Structures
1.
Amino acid sequence: MKGLAPVDVIVLAGGEGRRMGGRDKGLVAFRSLPMVGFAVQLAKPYARRLIISCNRHLPEYADLADQVVMDELAGFQGPLAGILSGLHVCHTELVLVLPCDTPLLQTELIERLLLAAQAKPDAITVLSEGDKLHPLHAVIPRRLTVDLSNWLAGGQRAVQRWMRSHPMQLIDIVDMADQLCNLNTEQALRVAEKSPLNN
């Protein structure tokens, strides 16, 4: 979309996949692609560089990204740890963050998120359904890297609590919330496989 400056993109694929029986969710097949492939394809038109934050199967992820990073904190410390590792190698002032397990997400929501973020670059911009945040669909100012590092060093892990400690703007997408369906269980995956193709 014209008017959108390229941003570095972090795709989060570093979870344990406990609700998926320990499988690496990003590499689980969905409609003939690994799930992470949908986030990669979606983000590429807007990406200066695409970084995948993962903790397993690095060679497989490296084939899809400009760079892969691992959590600097051991033991699967949650998505903020993955975001921090990604931020450390980013260079653009704003950084788009996406999870690997919402393959129904479409271009319109990415553009709404980026347009709002670039209009208000000092805030963390997050997709939401009213007051319900989808904090892993966000644009984060890179200047918050040190703050996030200090937050994690202090033993904090809660994504929303960290985000709410900074200026935020919420992008209400209640009319398109079905695009944010997390396919993090085998059942959710099977149901989504049978739904109409949106992408």
2.
Amino acid sequence: MQRAIKGWLVLLCLVMQPALADVIDVRLHYVGPTEGSAWLGMQQGLDEANIQGEFLGQKYSLVPVTIDELFQLDSVTAVLLAADAKQIQDVARSEKFANVPVFNISSDDDVLRSACLANVLNISASQKMKQDALAQWLAKNPESTAIVQGWHKDFKKFAASQLNIRFTKAYGEIMDDDSWAGWATVKLLSDTVARTQSIDAAVILNYLKNDIAFDGQKGAGATFRETGQLRQLVLIVEDNKIAAEAPLRGVKGGLDSLGQQNCK
């Protein structure tokens, strides 16, 4: 909590500074479809980042590229991928991107977490996180037919309802798991640039891995595990209604009761 408050105080001080003479151009390179949920979520994040950036002297753009084009670039601040596990690992394992944050937006594949690649940041909840959440629920509700989701249109806590409203108003769509993850990815980056005042990939990666206390409308102070997984609550959904949040109240370990915790 103290770290989150300190971070917001720093950001407030930045906002109160006079307009900067030189605008920081923050280009985020993206591999994936340029339509659908993840894309719209990133667009929402981009709009909000640029509103904030007007006060901080930062301008954000999202640059779609192919894998081949990505490997031809001279300088990259961050790579965002809505792709399968193999493609994400191919990018992350490349020497070219060893010190670049590589964001996994949409894949819940446990392989990406167990690989423990130092530059991979997994935004969506993993398969194991969802399995653990469902196991907690079924232990108390064995007849339930619930499923686990990372996001839901009726989620209201932590200003989630306002985010849902903003997204639906802007795009006429309901925010789902992938659109939340796309939005959260851009917000993580814009928060980091605001605090570090840097677009150097290594600086940003280090801050994200060690110092970020993220408010993704799932509760303040979210951090990354050494597996690269973003700690977060998930939702138990039955008949398209939120039945509970996981981890369930009283479960030992809290957020760390969901998914793989450490690198083996």
3.
Amino acid sequence: MPDTSREVTRHVLDNGLIVLLKEVHTAPVISWWVLYRVGSRNERTGQTGVSHWVEHMLFKGTEQFPAGVLDKAVDREGGVWNAQTSYDYTAYFETMPAGRIDLALRAEADRMQNAVFDPDEVESERTVIISERQGSENSPTFWLFEETRGAAFRVHPYHHQIIGDMVDLQTMTRDDLYGHYRTHYVPNNAIAVAVGDFETAEMLARIEELYSGIPRGPEPPRLIRTEPPQQGERTVRVEREGNASYIFQAYRAPAATDPDWFKLAVADSILAGASAPGGNSIGNKTSRLYKALVETELAASVGGGLYPSIEPYLFNIMVTVRDGRTPEEVQAALDAEIERLYNGDVTQDELDKARKQAKALFAYGTESVTGQAFWLAFSENFSSYSWYENYLEHLEAVTLDDVRDAARRYLRRSQRTVGWFIPVNGQEGESA
């Protein structure tokens, strides 16, 4: 089928709402996203997890669409809808048959200003979210991620989990949640994106009709807590019940707007296999770490990840130690592979293959109108939608010298935090 997509057009309504529109006429489907520029990095101590909780509350109804009504309506019209909270944003979407998209437009306009936050629903959802965290706590890697990231970030709010600290989930009030909603869910703090089978002029006119009357709010306060420079390697050891040992290694990484981000992304593809937001993967069996750790039966699995973030974040490597092996020997083999790249041991063939895999993964994640709409909103949040449009071009521009330079500057031991999970099988701590 021929590609009948058109260029992205960007519009800003008088109330500050950014609107991105892209016509794609390959199928009679439209995806509609509304992304708010607020996530876990905007949360102060005492209110960690508030962004995720507010996301839950927006599914609990408004006067126009009481709880449960939209679930049935979207399903009846043949659509899907959902939401997600991350470090830098909270986003809501509906992907619908093109002739039914008006329901999504009306629903998000209503939820932007009229969510009820019924006190009884707040308390009910408190139980749900606490249970969600408790369910995550059953996984050893949850504790390892939390402790390692907490050690990596001592000042910046990236240090806490998106779901929040248990003590805050137990003590936050309905007013805390509603105040967060009223502060951040304003049109001048939002990005709206439509991708799919529509005519731009008609879509923009309908969006203006539904959204232009929503009052602009005060500019939300920005929580600025810059992480100070790291002065040496940090180590974390988590000892809890479990069936395997894990290594979680986190290096300081640049923000997505830094030209070095793409250099490190290619290094990530060489080391651990290409990665992308949302957990998309095309496999990593040709990566260096898979060959060095899994094929040699030191590890059961290995993976990496570099997240496009507003502020400097982390390049992560996760290893599951194979039964019968020790974290010490796996760590030594892992360090040897990092040292190879750090010392510039990389070939043009490896670079070409890594770029090809990273490009393939990006294409895989953006082939649907839902994926395209997400990436447009996601990129506009920290930079511009052009970051998404130029993604492949930036990857192609990375040279062998770029990868070597990025490895030397970012894969330094002094700039990493290393976490080990050690199963204790019911025995707390170490013996005397």
